Amino acid sequence: MSFSVTTWNINSVRLRLPIVEQFIVREKPDILCLQEIKCRAEEFPLEPLQKMGYEHIILHGQKGYHGVAILSKVPLTEDHRQDYCGVGDARHISAIFERGSRRIRIHNFYVPAGGDEPDRSVNPKFGHKLDFVEEMKALKASTPGVSSILVGDLNIAPLEHDVWSHKQMLKIVSHTPVETEGLTDVMEKGGWLDLMRQHVPASEKLYTWWSYRAKDWEAADRGRRLDHIWSSPDLGPFLEKIEVLKEARGWNRPSDHVPVTATFRF
Asked: Is there a contact between 228 and 186 (Cβ–Cβ < 8 Å)?
């Protein structure tokens, strides 16, 4: 039984609804997790997405900023929204779905970007990001009777080949040692498995984001792997494939992130 989960920072779901619909028609994931929806719950385009088969939609939104949503073809239960750092931002939502006898909790995260200066003494946004990551270290992948999947824009490219130039990126927010070590700690302390790197060796370049600032993003190919799919170790053997839809970066009015899909065969 094949089952697919997609994560995508859409950078405004209302503005980019046409490409969300384009993606759904093409790929038909069973669950689609969106980040940076940038709207309140009452502003979310529920009806057109429900008509496309996503009858079960939960979200954590706020006006104009952040926001995460889980769109599902299968029922979602026990939804939860964690207020990381206690500042009221809509950056996390989770829920349980079932496949056969399995109960799986899916977490959808949008980690703070952290601003431009990697120094918390002069850049509070960077300090906020580090504090957010520190709190994530308490999140466990395995709990009794429940497996887990964690997806989202984590805004950190942790490995050497998750960026176009490891050496040139070491002092750039998203790939500084304090960030990469922090995210590695989240994985190790929580017992998470990096499914993307289970499928694509760490020695190979792997990107999910290309800057709007590049005149020709595809030719320059200065990407970063900011978007992630992790799971509890028990789900690893069921991973069939990972797909990074790079061409979506060239679609009409695109996000700077592209969809990443994990397909499982339970």
From this structure: no
